[in-house]
Each structure stands twice: as structure tokens, then as C-alpha cells.
């Protein structure tokens, strides 16, 4: 998962990660509202959420690729494990990712 404040940046991140086969699918949701601490202030911003489907083995490469193209100084990059899923979908995802 990552967020960004511009739809164009979310689109660019999604396209880049899918083209590199670091993600099989990325859903872009938004705008959403995020409230957070930044430089000793509470900030509220409209953002776009990128829900990235990948696999654990690609995390380091995925994180590096996001940092290279993300406009934020400290981008949110977090991994949420897939604990279960449809067999056909998970097979499709695995087949579409970098090996």
C-alpha cells in the first residue's frame, strides 16, 4: 500500500510497478482523507490510495521502485499479508509477477 496526493502520481506509480511485473494489479482508490503528524504539526490531506497486489519475495525491489518514483519525502510503503484468497486469483497473480 502507498498513498500520494495527486491522481497522476498514483497512475504513474501503478503503471510503472505493473510494467516491471512487481505488481500483478494495483487498485487506485480516492480521493481519501488522511490525517497525520508531519514535522510537529497535525496535517490533513486529500490523497489517493494505491492498493498493490504482489508477493513477499518482491517486497524489497517493490519498495525501492516506489521510492525512486514517489514524490513524497517519506512515502507510506507498507505490506499487508494475504492470509487467504481465491485459488484461481492467487495463481493468476503469481503467474503475472516477476520470477
Q: What does the model show?
A:
There is one protein chain. This protein has 99 residues and is α+β, with helices and mostly antiparallel strands. It has a single domain, classed as 2-Layer Sandwich (Alpha-Beta Plaits). Helices cover 34% and strands 30% of the residues. The chain has helices at 7-19, 59-69, 87-96; strands at 2-4, 25-38, 41-53. Helix 1 crosses helix 2 (59-69). The two termini are 21 Å apart. The model has no long low-confidence stretch (mean pLDDT 97).
Q: What share of the residues lie within helices?
A: 25-40%
The helix-and-strand class reads alpha+beta
Biggest β-sheet strands, sense, barrel? 3 strands, antiparallel
Oligomeric nature of the chains = single chain
- Residue fraction in strands: 25-35%
Overall average residue pLDDT: 97
Question: How would you write the strand order of the largest sheet?
Answer: 1-3-2
Family: Belongs to the CutA family.
InterPro entries: Ion_tolerance_CutA (IPR004323), N-reg_PII-like_a/b (IPR011322), N-reg_PII/ATP_PRibTrfase_C (IPR015867)
Protein name: Divalent-cation tolerance protein CutA
GO molecular function, one term: copper ion binding
Key traits:
99 residues; alpha+beta; Alpha-Beta Plaits; 3 helices
In short:
This protein is of the alpha+beta class and 99 residues long.
Annotate the secondary structure layout.
Elements: E1 2-4, H1 7-19, E2 25-38, E3 41-53, H2 59-69, H3 87-96
Antiparallel strand pairs: 1-3, 2-3
Organism: Desulfofervidus auxilii
Pfam family, one: CutA1
Family: Belongs to the CutA family.
Amino acid at each position: 500500500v502507498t498513498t500520494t496526493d495527486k491522481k497522476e502520481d498514483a497512475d504513474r506509480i501503478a503503471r510503472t510497478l505493473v510494467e516491471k511485473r512487481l505488481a500483478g494489479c494495483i487498485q487506485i482508490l480516492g480521493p481519501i482523507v488522511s490525517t497525520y503528524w508531519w514535522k510537529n504539526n497535525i496535517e490533513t490531506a486529500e490523497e489517493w490510495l494505491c492498493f498493490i497486489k504482489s508477493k513477499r519475495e518482491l517486497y524489497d525491489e517493490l519498495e525501492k521502485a516506489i521510492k525512486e518514483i514517489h514524490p513524497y519525502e517519506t512515502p507510506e510503503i507498507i505490506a499487508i499479508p494475504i492470509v487467504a484468497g481465491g485459488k484461481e486469483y492467487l495463481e493468476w497473480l503469481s503467474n503475472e509477477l516477476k520470477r
